[in-house]
Amino acid sequence: MSDWQLTRTFRSSSGEVRWDSLGDPGRHPVVLLHGTPVSSYVWRAVARALSRRHHVFVWDMPGYGTSEKSAGQDVSLAAQGRVFTELLAHWELAEPRVVAHDFGGAVALRAHLLHGARYHSLALVDPVALAPWGTPFFRLVGKNSEVFDQLPPALHRALVREYVSSASSPGLHPAVHDRLVEPWLGATGQAAFYRQIAQADQRYTDEVQDRYGEITIPTLVCWGEDDTWIPVDKGHELVARIPGARLALIPGAGHLVQEDAPAALLAALLD
Questions:
Q1: For residues 149 and 197, is the Cβ–Cβ distance under 8 A?
Q2: Does 161 fall in a domain?
Q3: CA-wise closest residue to 17 among 71, 78, 79, 72
Q4: What positions does the domain AB hydrolase-1 occupy (predicted)?
């Protein structure tokens, strides 16, 4: 578990955020945003590779990974967009390159379109961006989160393990699988897992999806060809909505492109 640690803390409007940076501070900044139900851990390989050329910032969103998880915490897309804007100000980053996966894609888009966050460029990796979204399981849990939160720990663990594994096409390494599941275990983790699903509301992307035509920065959309969580058709649709956007399809990758094909994803980002 010591191969990826976030050593710094920021007190955000939604609780304590753990973050860190890699690379030379004098180089152009890159910020990586994770999705759900994972954490910055999924970016470890890409972050380390990018840090040879850039100053890379990584963080666990409130309610995820090693960041604060607490009862009554606001971990919605609206809250995360505000927190990201706060972090950019805290880091004093004027126009970083931003790379955002899944739920993080919606966070980056909301921060840019609603809160005035400025980016040098934007790369969206299998993002939550267009309606309808959410797997059948995700929607079921969202409607019945209080019931699922009462599952015995062993059943909860089995459910989360199966859910996380379904995001990968070739399958996760056992140690990686364990690391992705671990933050959601125990009383605090279990409550946090169902809390973040309960607060995932499509209205937060509905508020911005008709404004994607306003995006003028260079935009790349990457998509795992084997993504069963969000079909690749959404990638084509999103590119059509953002002026000048390019689509890079990643063969052999599911939704967790960072785990399934990190080299191919890195190549697309560097291009």
A1: no
A2: no
A3: 79
A4: 29-262
The verdict on residue 18 lying in a domain is yes
Instruction: Looking at 27-68, list the stretches that DSSP marks H as alpha helix, in order from N- to C-terminal side.
Output: 44-50
- Residue 196: φ, ψ to 5°: -70, -30
- 57, HSE (Cβ side, Cα atoms, 13 Å): 27
Q: How far is Cα of residue 6 from the mean position of the Cα atoms in its chain? A: 16
| Domain span including residue 123 | 8-134+201-268
123 pLDDT exceeds 70? yes
165 within domain boundaries: no
Per-residue pLDDT tens for 102-117? 999 999 999 999 999 9
pTM for the full predicted model: 0.97
Alpha carbons 115 and 127: distance in angstroms, whole number:
19
Q: With 0-12 CB in 10 A as exposed, 13-18 as middle and 19+ as buried, what is 108?
A: buried
Would you say residue 1 has pLDDT above 80?
Answer: no
CATH number of the domain at 248, please.
3.40.50.1820
| Domains in the chain, number | 1
End-to-end Cα distance, the chain: 32
